[in-house]
Every structure is written in structure tokens, then in C-alpha cells.
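Support case: copper (II) ion complex. Customer-provided input:
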Amino acid sequence: MKKGERLTLHVTSDRDDTLHVHGYDRELPLSAGTSATLTLTADRTGLFEVETHGSGLVRPFPPARAVAGQLPLFLLMIAYTLGGIGLLVA
Ligand SMILES: [Cu+2]
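Agent response - structure generated as follows:
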């Protein structure tokens, strides 16, 4: 997604839990079986982990697509890192 865009997460958990968006340090309490929504503005660049603190696991992609689905973000992260290093040495 592009910097400045709004991101909305709709999350339903099968147990009481807490969703945590790292990097933005936003938490969303989850009640079992009830949909919860978290909205934020993507004003930071990078790759940020989203996890539940009870189970420690959120799969943004089905297991079969876990690697291929994250590849574009991984490449973007590498590009940002190299760009940052490039700015430092330029
Ligand atoms: Cu966390």
C-alpha cells in the first residue's frame, strides 16, 4: 500500500485475545467470535508484524501462499534498506 493510505483490519478470533500491530504500536482487544476493527493511517514505511498476543500467530496469507505472498513486501523492504544505505554513502 502507499504511504498515507488508510488501512482497516477486520479481525475475528475464536478466543479472547489481543491483536498487536508492531511498528505502529496499536492494539485491538478481541472477544471470541466477535468481529473487531482497527483503522490506521499508513504513515510509516517498512514491513510491520501483526500478531495476536494470546496465540502469537496471525496468518495474513494461507500457508500455501505464505512465502510467495510475502515476497513483494520482502523485496520492498530490501529496496528501502538499499535506498537508505545509498543515501548514507551518497
Ligand atoms: Cu506484539
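The longest helix spans residues 66-89.

Case will auto-close in a few days if no follow-up is received.
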